[in-house]
Amino acid sequence: MLQDHTSAGPRPRAQRRRDTEHRLAHDVDVWVASASAGGAPYLVPLSFDWDGETLLVATLADSPTGQNLAATRATRLGLGHTRDVSMIEGEVEVLDLAALPQQRGDRFAARTGFDPRTPATPYRWFRITPRRIRAWREADELPGRELMREGRWLA
User: Fold this and answer.
1) What b/e sequence results for 53-89 when a residue is b if at least 16 CB atoms lie within 10 Å of its CB, and e otherwise?
2) pTM (two decimals)
3) 29: how many CB neighbours lie within 10 A of its CB?
4) Cα 91 to Cα 133: distance, rounded to the nearest angstrom
5) Tens-digit pLDDT profile for residues 83-117
6) CA-to-CA separations, 1 to 4, 23, 29, 67, 131, in angstroms, rounded
7) Closest CA to 116 of 107, 125, 104, 127
8) Which CATH superfamily is domain 30-153 in?
C-alpha cells in the first residue's frame, strides 16, 4: 500500500521502491513520452500491463507515438501524480500483435479493458524494459530518488 503523503520527512529508498512496485502492479495508465527522429516531443497516456519485469503498452502503429517508439526504441514514462511520481526510462521492443503470446495479450485486455487485437486499424505492442527509475514526492525526496540504474534495483 502507498505510504501516506502527510508523513514527516522523506521516504527511505526501500519504501519508494515498494510504492513504485505497488503502482506498477495496480495502476492501469501511464504517461508515455517519445520524440521523433527530429526531436519533436510527444506525450500521451496509454494503458499498460506490468509482468514484474516489463511494461506492455499498445498503440496504433502509424500514430506519432507508435512511429517514435519504433524509430528510437526509447521512452520515458510518468507513473502517478505530479506530487508522487515515478519516472521510468526504458528500452522499447516493438512487437507485431501476433508475436505476443495469447495469454499475455489476454492479460493486457483484462487488466486495461482494451484489446488492441480486435480493431481493424493496425496496432502494435511495445514492451518496455525499465533501465532507470526515479521516484519522489517533494523537494525533500530529491536526494536518493534514483531506485534503478542500468536495469538494476538499488534498494
Assistant:
1) ebbbbbbeeebbbbbbbeeeebbbbbbbeeebbbbbb
2) 0.91
3) 12
4) 12
5) 999 999 999 999 999 999 999 999 999 999 999 99
6) 9, 9, 18, 36, 24
7) 125
8) Electron Transport, Fmn-binding Protein; Chain A (2.30.110.10)
State the 10-residue block means of pLDDT for the chain, 155 residues long: 61 94 97 94 97 97 96 97 94 95 96 93 96 94 93 92
Distance CA 48, CA 29 (A): 6
**AA letter at 32:** V
Q: Quick one: cell of 80? A: 502517478
Cell digits of residue 57: 503498452
Q: From residue 47, give the alpha-carbon distance in Å to each of 31, 115, 126.
A: 9, 11, 11
Pairing, β 49-50 against β 55-60 = antiparallel
Q: Which spans in 83-137 are helix H?
A: 102-112
Q: Which of 43, 126, 30 is nearest to 79 (CA)?
A: 30
pLDDT tens for each residue of 63-72 = 999 999 999 9
Looking at residue 144, its pLDDT comes to 87
